[in-house]
UniProtKB/TrEMBL annotation:
This is FAD-dependent oxidoreductase. Its cofactor is FAD. Gene3D superfamilies: FAD/NAD(P)-binding domain. The keyword Flavoprotein applies. Keywords: FAD, Flavoprotein, Monooxygenase, Oxidoreductase. It comes from the Bacteria. Residues 6-340 form the FAD-binding domain.
C-alpha cells in the first residue's frame, strides 16, 4: 500500500494492537480515543494461546511474560457441592503456547507503550460523534466540533461503534436475561494460577488470580428476568450478589462476602456486523462482532483481527482489496466463536449434565485455541 494517513478510532485492545501492527510495517497511524487517559476500568482477561501468538508477533512477548501470569489449568467445579467436574492441564497439554491472565489495565498499558514505541500518535479526549462515508475520503467529527478527514478509517470503537453504525445503520441488541457482576479483591496467599468455573443452575462464578497472585478476579453471572444496563460504570448492591450465590460452596461465598462495590453489566447479544468495510472504513474487534464472555475470546478475537487486518491492508495496493481479504479471512471464524460462546452460556447453567459440559468445554478449547 502506498503512504496514506490511517486514523483509528478507539485505543482499546483492537485499536492499539492494529496500530502497532501497521506502524511496524511502516504506516503513519493516529489513534483517537475518547477517554482522558489510557486506563482501563474493568478487571481480568484471559489471553489464550491464539491471542498470545499475536502478542508475540507484535514483538511484545517479553513484556507479556512480565505483565501477565501464566495459567496452569482450567477447572470446572460444581458450585453447590465443590466437586471437580473437569481439569484441563494447560502446562501439560500446551507447553509451548502460553495461556495468561492479565489485568486489563496492564494489557492496555503494554499495547499502548508498544504502539507509541512504534511511532503511533495516540490522541486522548477525542470522542467521535459522527462518521461520514461516501465517495470521498472518510470524515469524522469529534464532540469538540473538529472535523478530521483521513485516507483510511479503522473503527476499533467497541460495542457502541460509530464506524459500525455508519456502515450498517443502527441495530438494537437484545438482552440475554443474564447479568454479570465483576470485581477484584485481594487474593489469599498461595492462590493457584488456575481459572475456576463454579457452575450452578442458572448461574456461574469464574475466578482466577491477577498480578502475580496479589488479586483475585471474580465474574459472577446470573440469569434474571429484569433488564440491566450494558455498562461497566454501574455498581450494584453486594447483597444481591451474595443472595444469588448463597447456596454455593463456602470458598466462593467467602470471596463474594468481601466484595463491597461490584460492577454490574447486562449481557446483550449484538449481531455480527453485516458490512465490515466500505467508503474507506473498516471495523474490527467488538465493533464488528461483540461476543458474550463465556468463551473468553472477545479480546483474543480482537488481537487476531488486528494482526490479519494489518497484514491484508499492507499487502494490497487498494485498501478496499485489503479490507475484502480481511473480511474473507475472518468472518467465518468469528461467527463460529460468537455462536459457541452463546451456546456455552447454556452449558454452564445446566444442572445434571456435568459430563456433557466437561466434554463441551474440552471440545471448545481444542477447537479454538490454535490461531488461524
Ligand atoms: P473495547 O475494549 O471496548 O475498546 C474500544 C475503545 O474505543 C475504548 O477505549 C473506548 O473508550 C473507545 N471508544 C468507543 N467509542 C468511542 C468514540 N465514539 N470515540 C472515541 N473513542 C471511542 N475477552 C477475552 O478475550 N478474554 C476474557 O477473559 C474476557 N473476559 C471478559 C469478561 C467480561 C465480563 C466481558 C463483558 C468481556 C470479556 N471479554 C474477554 C471480552 C473483551 O473484553 C472484549 O471483547 C474486548 O475488550 C474488545 O476489545 P475492543 O478493542 O474491540 O473494544
Amino acid at each position: 500500500m502506498s503512504a496514506r494517513r490511517i486514523t483509528i478510532v478507539g485505543a482499546g485492545i483492537a485499536g492499539l494492537a492494529v496500530a502497532r501492527a501497521l506502524a511496524l510495517r511502516g504506516a503513519e497511524v493516529t489513534v483517537l480515543e475518547q477517554a482522558p487517559e489510557i486506563r482501563e476500568v474493568g478487571a481480568g482477561l484471559q489471553i489464550t494461546p491464539n491471542g498470545h501468538r499475536v502478542i508475540e508477533a507484535l514483538g511484545l512477548g517479553g513484556e507479556a511474560a512480565q505483565e501477565g501470569q501464566r495459567a496452569e489449568a482450567v477447572e470446572l467445579v460444581d458450585g453447590e457441592s465443590g466437586g471437580r467436574v473437569l481439569r484441563l492441564d494447560l502446562l501439560q497439554q500446551r507447553p509451548g503456547s502460553p495461556f495468561r491472565f492479565f489485568h486489563r489495565a496492564d494489557l492496555i498499558g503494554m499495547l499502548a507503550n508498544g504502539a507509541r514505541a512504534a511511532g503511533v500518535e495516540i490522541r486522548l479526549l477525542q470522542k467521535i460523534d459522527s462518521v461520514t462515508l461516501g465517495d470521498g475520503p472518510p470524515r469524522i467529527r469529534t464532540a469538540l466540533g473538529d472535523e478530521v478527514e483521513t485516507d483510511i478509517l479503522i473503527g476499533a470503537d467497541g460495542l457502541h461503534s460509530k464506524v459500525r453504525e455508519a456502515l450498517n445503520g443502527r441495530v438494537a441488541p437484545f438482552f440475554t436475561h443474564q447479568v454479570a457482576w465483576r470485581a477484584t479483591l485481594p487474593a489469599d496467599p498461595g492462590i493457584r494460577p488456575v481459572a475456576q468455573v463454579f457452575m450452578g443452575a442458572g448461574r456461574h462464578v469464574v475466578s482466577y488470580p491477577l498480578r502475580g497472585g496479589h488479586l483475585r478476579n471474580v465474574v459472577a453471572v446470573e440469569e434474571r428476568r429484569h433488564w440491566a444496563e450494558e455498562s461497566w460504570s454501574l455498581t450494584d448492591d453486594p447483597l444481591a450478589l451474595r443472595i444469588a450465590f448463597e447456596d454455593f460452596v463456602p470458598e466462593v461465598r467467602g470471596w463474594l462476602d468481601r466484595i463491597e462495590r461490584p460492577n454490574l453489566w447486562g449481557l446483550f447479544r449484538h449481531p455480527v456486523a453485516v458490512r465490515w468495510h466500505g467508503g474507506g472504513a473498516v471495523i474490527l474487534g467488538d465493533a464488528a462482532h461483540p461476543t458474550l464472555p463465556f468463551l473468553a475470546q472477545g479480546a483474543n478475537m480482537a488481537l487476531e483481527d488486528a494482526w490479519v487486518l494489518a497484514d491484508c491492508l499492507m499487502s494490497f495496493k487498494a485498501p478496499e482489496d485489503g479490507f475484502a481479504d480481511y473480511h474473507a479471512r475472518r468472518a467465518a471464524r468469528v461467527r463460529r466463536i460468537v455462536e459457541a460462546a452463546n451456546a456455552n452460556a447454556k452449558n454452564y447453567h445446566m444442572s445434571g449434565l456435568r459430563r456433557d459440559l466437561a466434554h463441551g468445554l474440552l471440545r471448545v478449547l481444542d477447537r479454538f485455541a490454535p490461531a488461524t
